[in-house]
Amino acid sequence: MNTHDTPAIAVHGLHKAYGHTVAVDEVSFTVARGRVLGLLGPNGAGKTTSMRMLLGLASIDRGQASIHGRPYAQLADPVGTVGAVLDAGGLHPGRTARQHLRIAAAMAGVDAARVDPLLDDAGLGQSADRAIRTYSLGMRQRVALATALVGDPSVLVLDEPANGLDPAGTRWLRTMLRGFAAGGGAVLLSSHILAEVAQVADEVVVVARGRVVGSGRVDDLTVHHGGDLEAYYLDLTAENAEVR
Ligand SMILES: Nc1ncnc2c1ncn2[C@@H]1O[C@H](COP(=O)(O)OP(=O)(O)O)[C@@H](O)[C@H]1O
Ligand SMILES: [Mg+2]
Questions:
Q1: Residue 127 CB contacts under 8 Å (≥ 6 apart), including other chains
Q2: Domains by residue range for the chain, with CATH
Q3: What are the CA-CA distances from residue 225 to residues 163, 233, 236, 240 (Å)?
Q4: Whose CA, among 26, 50, 126, 147, lies 20 to 30 Å from 66?
Q5: Exposed (0-12), middle (13-18) or buried (19+): which is 28, by Cβ within 10 Å?
Q6: Within its chain, how far is the Cα of 32 from the centroid?
Q7: Which ligand has its closest atom nearest to the C-alpha of 21?
Q8: CA distance 42 to 211
Q9: DSSP 3-state assignment of 223?
Q10: Which burial class, exposed, middle or buried, applies to 77 when counting CB atoms under 10 A from its CB (0-12, 13-18, 19+)?
Q11: Going by CA atoms, what residue is nearest to atom 12 of ligand 1?
Q12: Per-residue pLDDT, 179
């Protein structure tokens, strides 16, 4: 197969159980280069677990997950291929944003000169030398996203990246991700909030209780559901509602 036809991200028949809890049940989707796919679903739907399996952070019971045609563990240059944010709360509280990015750059083997522009693009130039413990959740999300971009990846995997962002932050995220996709990058992002996904994603995959319950292009879904994407989403997930 021509490598250019290989999806940037491909997940097929992914399955994972924790004891009697089926966290992810036969989930399949692909993300092409230049596209943003939103994984949308209520809490406990299996979004984080799917991403962790894609990134080799959780074992896969059944199915396959690949990035540019390979399992994450077999990528020749993982940091230069995939940028990920799974837990913006996991940043070292005592470090400054600049220190955090410099360490990430050193670990990725990229020039430290990349750090300042990334901080500026993330709107962190003014606060880059303050300890991360003093940052709001939105600022931590910005640091985490800047860190994900350190290796100049072609794929971004972002778990609830809009969480904690104010309207300016949400706009920054949208602009950044649309620019990343316009440059040929592929983005997989998750959210439990429809509006966050609808404004940035080309396509959505709706998951509930581990299963894909709907999917499509945001434009088409909006047209087919009388402009009311939210009603569609709530209908889909209500049938599968069970607080977990
Ligand atoms: N490490 C784990 N051990 C046990 N259960 C887990 C673990 N991680 C996730 N789960 C369960 O798997 C289900 C899916 O969780 P998760 O992928 O975090 O959902 P989401 O990210 O969509 O909120 C939930 O029922 C959750 O409690
Ligand atoms: Mg989650």
A1: 97, 135, 139
A2: 3-90+153-238 (3.40.50.300)
A3: 26, 10, 12, 19
A4: 147
A5: middle
A6: 14
A7: 1
A8: 12
A9: helix
A10: exposed
A11: 23
A12: 95
Strands 36-40 and 186-191: parallel
The per-residue pLDDT for 204 is 95
What are the DSSP calls for 130-158, one per residue? SBGGGS-HHHHHHHHHHHHTTT--SEEEE
Distance of CA 114 to the CA centre of its chain: 22
3-state secondary structure of 184: coil
So what's the pLDDT on residue 230? 79
- E strand or H helix at 10: strand 9-18
Contacts of 229 (CB under 8 A, 6+ apart): 194, 198, 218, 221, 222
Ligand nearest the Cα atom of residue 242: 1
Structure-block tokens of residue 69: 């045609």
Q: What does R_g of the chain's alpha carbons equal in angstroms?
A: 18
Query: SS3 helix, strand, coil % of the chain, rounded to 5?
Result: 40, 25, 35
Please choose from 49, 57, 197 the residue to mutate so as to test ligand 1's pocket, defined by most ligand atoms within 8 A of CB.
49
CA 1 to ligand 2 centroid distance, Å: 34
Torsion of CA 185, 152, 97, 37, to 10 degrees: 20
CB atoms within 10 A of CB 131: 14
